[in-house]
Amino acid sequence: MSYILAIDQGTTSSRAILFDKDLRVVQVAQQEFPQHFPASGWVEHDPADLWATTVQTARDVLAQAGIDAAQLAGIGITNQRETTLVWDADTGAPLYNAIVWQDRRTADTCAALRAAGHEEMISGATGLLLDPYFSATKVQWILDHCDGARDRAQAGKLRFGTVDSYLIWNLTEGRTHATDATNAARTMLYDIHKGDWSVEICALLDIPMSMLPEVRDCAADFGVTGILGAEVPILGVAGDQQAATIGQACFRPGMMKSTYGTGCFALLNTGDTPVRSRNRLLTTIAYQLDGKPTYALEGSIFIAGAVVQWLRDGLGIIDNAAQTQALAETADPAQDLVIVPAFTGLGAPYWQPDCRGAVFGLTRGSGPAEFARAALQSVGYQTRDLLQAMQADWPAETRGQDQTTLRVDGGMAASDWTMQFLADILGAPVDRPDVLETTALGAAWLAGMRAGIYPDQAGFAATWARADGFEPQMGQPERDRRYARWQAAIAATISVPSA
Questions:
Q1: H/E run at residue 51
Q2: Smallest Cα–Cα separation from 246: which of 299, 288, 303, 186?
Q3: SS3 category, 109
Q4: What is the value of pTM for the model shown?
Q5: For each successive 10 residues of the chain (499 residues), what is the average pLDDT?
Q6: Are 232 and 74 in contact (CB under 8 A)?
Q7: Distance, C-alpha 253 to centroid of its chain
Q8: Which of 165, 277, 427, 480 keeps 20 to 30 A from 180, CA to CA?
Q9: Cα–Cα distance measured from residue 249 to residue 25, given in angstroms and rounded to the nearest whole number
């Protein structure tokens, strides 16, 4: 039993990644599934798709690797966070489609809760902004809109869970209703300070606590599954961004990871201190081991890799993402084009969902190269916005004077030019890891450590290897000038009302 199976259930696809006893990737299987948009601002998944693709990819990865399930020491699960499911406690049948984290249908509910004065209580307990992004008002909506749901919930006949809980329930054939602390912390129902579900918030939203899963450590016993042909324990669970933080071995306070996909999620480890943000960042749980939570500040950027997709699909100036770096390298240094990619509004620390994108500094000489450079630079500027907000929330006298090193992963992290600009504009080192499958790696390590085939925290951190490092080369005056221009562009973009 020297292999670990990592299940990575994401927003657009499910993946299964097989790791060997040395934490090396052996095989990967992936399967996409449909998205459903029943109304404007609504996003749903068919729970059957989540389950079927998870099972199929798990079976496929074993078959492709020629591995029998009896050779698995355990399973680790990482998942899209906040996506909400409610199902029957006896049959496991879902009451409704999974309401996805992107779904905005409960915006009016959140506004009403805010107007009634509940925001401070909710944010104080959960560390989250009062927003439809999180699970709580999604659960409430399902109970309010499915016939007989409230009566069945009050009778203890319904169960709620994020995707990890739903998969665990099905993998164990209804024997285990559990989640881990990182996923619980994203529901807006969990008190991250007390380490328990909030009785007050559940009462406010009329959500019976009998619906809620048991909260366990990230490395814990989550039951046993037999669906792969042998009895295999589920031993590790973490939400996707927390799993990436673990996979990047960001175990010391002050360590920070940033994942560059379509958007960007950055987490800063704050140790055993839950730092309350004054800059509209989220206070969350990075991971929980041996009953002890480690906290983080989290910020999200809506548009990272998506700005390169815009260059390709919207402007048609590139055929593929790899061309962007070569174009950026040829841009006219005398031009100072700035793109604010607020295509769907601005995320942290601004949280301006209604503003829209803008381009500043256009000249007759502005062409594809200048647009490519400005697009890549926008990711660095937005990351600096997050880092400065985090440092303002967690001042040096509290966190210590050590310089933050940013560990990066995701598709855009493969661009040397982008990572060098990131180091330059941050004035901080940027490290790219040897293993880029950091999310799956985090889930695998949790399960393998629990199974006893992988090293402990310190040992795992020692195995983390840097493939490339980028040191700041830009002088401070130039860094400050460029960032001041970005800030002016942001202020101008926010000041223009959207149509």
A1: helix 47-65
A2: 288
A3: helix
A4: 0.88
A5: 92 91 93 87 92 97 95 96 95 95 87 95 94 93 95 96 97 96 97 96 96 97 95 96 94 90 87 89 95 94 84 88 89 92 84 84 91 94 92 71 77 89 94 88 97 95 90 94 95 78
A6: yes
A7: 19
A8: 277
A9: 17
